[in-house]
Amino acid sequence: MESVLREVTPLSERDCFMIFTRTKKEFTYPVHIHAEYELNFIENGAGAKRVVGDSMEDIENLELALITGPNLEHAWLNNKCESEEIKEITIQFHGDLLNEHLLQKNQFRTVKEMFEKAQFGVVFSQETITSMRERLYSLASEAQGAHSVLKLFGILYDLSLSPMRELSSRSFKSHEQSYDSRRIERAYNFMLENYNKEIRLADVADLVGMTEVAFSRFIKKRTGRNFIDSLNDIRLGHATRLLVDTTYSIMEICMVCGFNNLSNFNRIFKKKKGCTPREFRENYKESRFFL
User: Fold this and answer.
1) Per-residue pLDDT averaged across 191-212, rounded?
2) What is the spatial distance between Cα 213 and Cα 211, in angstroms, rounded to a whole number?
3) pTM of the predicted model, to two decimals?
4) Nearest 5°: phi and psi at 89?
């Protein structure tokens, strides 16, 4: 596998965070990775394409995304954006800015959960971004001193209380996941190990000692996804990884990822990703920059 561009940020060990503000006419930075956590705000960027892991979507006029995965590929690309005045605020901070001891406290529980979701990238609603917009501009204008750190903490906490949507498939990047439930972890581990085989709801429910109905409700409540969506998400994560990193045919990828039926694979892929597997492979190759 070739290496994606690794960004070396100017954030030093002596800094709590760095904030960058730009007004520009186009997006020029390719798909990349970096170790630092990143909160990225964009205004007047409608039509640009956001790439986060295996998620590729056109953004709206306002965009706010949080990425905490150290090896999660991401970028914003011109695509169909025609704005002459794109405004961008990028905040980068170390993963231990709020250390594990602090995140274990009850008051920071929602921030911890948000950071875990953002390992796969999360995006916030237009309503949330509108409510945060002035606070982000205020932080950008006064990014020095301890008060600026407290402002950032306040922004992160309020974001953790708001609706958010995960972007990349959880199986696109190998990452040790925690679901705060031994039953869910056991079920997910079983699906991760056997995604290329036939897996029935009854099999997984029996594995964790629950009825099918009870397990269906349980997994939906704990993860926000039903059983079929959870299994398809795992399979699609492996499929997109193979589309990016191998020259396997679409049919070969379909079969080794457990779909068994090409038309079904294409239908599920397009529903989840907004494009066919072939289009995804072509679009991703165009957006990547290799060392």
Assistant:
1) 93
2) 5
3) 0.75
4) -125, 120
